[in-house]
């Protein structure tokens, strides 16, 4: 059925074009022979094709454009006729004898254009006559295209200031009157289309109307181009007349489009000075009109105008733009109780953007907008509309983008209250946006109160909200979120130790409730921030004024002990052990032996009771050895206890090669370069011999299990340790021991049962080259290495 209608329309259009072209042909012949009577006859017959009611606006436009092209040629002919002596007044009378009204009015507009150009009559009189005559066509589509033609031929002939058609006083008023009258009549015709035809074709009519809207809107564009319209005329005449037509037409399509046109075509300065009048029209519009979009565009234009130059800002203050827009939004929301929450948020989001551009220093205005938004959201619970939540994110992001400073945003008391209406996922998104803003702008947050306020804003990332299940969260996303929180913790700083300690306590309070999955990400940065403060206070044991409340390293270490302990409970023993060792090293630098010993004790307990994975044990024992070697605070007894345990753990590792490496690493615990009291050559030798025995045992086990002794890498590694201590002056490590080890390695490498290992061969060769290099150095070093034969 629809297809048949389309085919019929195509046939009618083809027939109309054929009739138009045929009459245009005869018209051209008459024009070529200067036959005025025939030219008028055939042009009238050609224009009669436009009398059809069968075509949709889209098809009618195709027909109209062909007729329009022909009328251009006819207008040129009329101009030539007047030059040849034909009276334009007689011609104006003559075309009015055409049989049908539609062709008659098209011809009248065409001759009228020539008549105005001839200046034989005032332009305002001819225009007034034409616009009145066009009332004769009341069919919506035919009437709209006729008046569109009138607007087209007259737009360069309006009696504007500076125009060649400018007559006596008040000619601009006549030009404005003509355009306004044509606009009013066109709008009436356009609205009338909505009420013609059956109700079932409503959507089709709305589509057709949408295709024709630019014909009506062009009048407003013409108005905006009239030079003579100053602010007073716009305020007193143009805007009230246009708005009167917009409000009175009571048609939602027309109201939305025309309000948008007004905002887009007239200057920003005019909008600013007529805000009262313009905003007063919004509550009078039909409830179905998408006011939020139009009003948002108005605020966007005004925002851009304010941003364009600082010189215009006083105008905004003078007209109290914020107060008027805020009041208007309230009125619009009041007039439309069924407005979706998305519309409300969009309006307030646009108002906030406007406020931030025009009054960046007025935080109370920004807070007022957020407060109004909270008021509208109250009682609605968490928002479920995705578009509405995105709009809230835009609303909350605006102050961050403008101020580039979360500290300023934290002063907005209603900011966290708006956040409460976001669902868990969007809350996380907003928290991420806030953290990214801080990172990007390197914002310094330096008081505990501000940190408290900030962590309230980003609580979606640091604790579970509303029983949020971890299983539903993507692991990569979760890690990225927690890493961003960790980076944020590192940024918090204050040079004053007292305030910094308060910041650390505030952060600790928030992150400890984050649950077992978050703590491994958030505790380490907190520990390192605390250790940074310890280094700052290094050497300060007691406050010189004897205040009990003062921050001391001991006090921070107590807090750290409790904080790291939470990781061992989760459990995350490997991480907890690393942090205990970091704390022990810091306590060592502060000369706090009991504190350092306690941290080592905790690390050892974790190693014994919690770390069972062999790889984790290897990593842990090397960390313990490395840290203990750097400690200088321990007395003989404490150091012996810790060293004894470390060597014991090393010998109990599962695999022999791991045992061997851990045992020879322990040799460094008995010989520390910068500590004269830790240079026990005998115990170093004992460790190295023990490592050698374990390496031998490893080879025997390999031979028994696989039939080959395996690689000699362990022996080469031990040889390097011998050389290290030999060079450091350990009297127990002599040339004979090194020579013996060199021969052992050589023998093992030549043994038939050894497994070929290019890496071990290269390592050994490199070691031999080192010995030769040291010999060639000469001096004391050369002498020392000279007896070694390679």
UniProtKB/TrEMBL annotation:
SUPFAM superfamilies: ARM repeat. The keyword Transport applies. Plays a role in vesicular protein sorting. InterPro entries: ARM-type_fold (IPR016024), Vps35 (IPR005378), Vps35_C (IPR042491). The keyword Membrane applies. Coiled coil: none annotated. Keywords: Membrane, Protein transport, Transport. It comes from Hibiscus sabdariffa. It comes from the Eukaryota. Gene3D superfamilies: Vacuolar protein sorting-associated protein 35, helical subcomplex Vps35-C (1.25.40.660). Belongs to the VPS35 family. It is a peripheral membrane protein. It is found in: Membrane. This is Vacuolar protein sorting-associated protein 35.
